[in-house]
Amino acid sequence: MPKVTAAYRRKKQLEIAIAAKEVFERKGYTYTSMNDIMLEANIARGTLYSYFDSIEQVFLEVLAIVDNLSFTAIEEDCNMFIERLDNFVHKEIVNLLRQPSLVQARAEYFFSLEDPTFFEQRYKRTIEGITSFLQKGVESGEFTPQKSVRSIARFMLSFVDGLMLNTSQLREFSNFVNDQLEIFHSSLYYILGVDKETKTRNGC
Fold first, then answer.
1. What is the pLDDT of residues 102-131, one digit of tens each?
2. What is the pLDDT of residue 190?
3. Rounded CA separation 126/50 (Å)
4. According to the model, what pLDDT value does residue 99 have?
5. Are 67 and 125 in contact (CB under 8 A)?
6. CB neighbours of 190 closer than 8 A, spacing ≥ 6?
7. Count of beta carbons in the 10 Å neighbourhood of residue 122
8. Gap between the Cα atoms of 83 and 85, Å rounded
9. Residue 42 backbone class (left: φ over 0; alpha: ψ -120 to 50; beta: rest)
10. How far apart are the C-alpha atoms of 103 and 44, rounded to whole Å?
């Protein structure tokens, strides 16, 4: 039997997680089973369990993929920092509203946790990513923040997480998301010291 390389194993793990994402979007976290993922990924039960031990492990891999894609996209964007920020926030909100989405699965998983370790690790990782991006905007001269960039990063994450939870639990809340986004933008521009009207496009 040929030896399975680490690169191949990781590639296969990602393929399974991407297939699992489709299931979580349709069924949520609570009602997704390992058998559902096995069928979606078109793999044998033994193969699935050789890569993941549980539904939770699969879901954490899915969340890591989604988070990494978000930060990769914002880093590779060729626009000015404020436009990158706009694109990032807009994408997050679109993901909250589109159906099917991971919103329900995220909420179900978050509410099921008794150990706060996942929250703490995700919070720290996400705050570091947003803070790093905002600091680069400051260094470029686009942002002149009235508060520390870390405090602003916390504000941004709290806003997005709050929208996620409200959207998943309150059906009518989705009708107000655009209004909330407009207010958030205005607040963000203000605390970052950005003049929205003076934005100009800048290529790579």
1. 888 988 898 888 888 887 888 898 899 889
2. 92
3. 29
4. 59
5. yes
6. 146
7. 17
8. 5
9. left
10. 28
Burial class (CB within 10 angstroms; exposed 0-12, middle 13-18, buried 19+) of 91: middle
What pTM value is reported for the model?
Answer: 0.74
CB 65 within 8 A of CB 111: no
CA distance 22 to 171: 22
Q: Do residues 153 and 127 lie in contact, with contact meaning Cβ atoms separated by under 8 Å?
A: yes
The C-alpha angle with vertex 177 and arms to 173 and 198, in degrees rounded to 5, equals 165
Q: What angle do CA 201, 98, 112 make, to 5 degrees?
A: 115
| Polymer length of the chain | 204
Could you give the CA distance from residue 144 to residue 130 in angstroms, rounded to a whole number?
16
Please state, in angstroms and rounded to a whole number, the distance separating the CA atoms of residues 38 and 33.
9
How far apart are the C-alpha atoms of 84 and 73, rounded to whole Å? 9
pLDDT tens digits, 151-173: 999 999 888 888 777 776 676 55
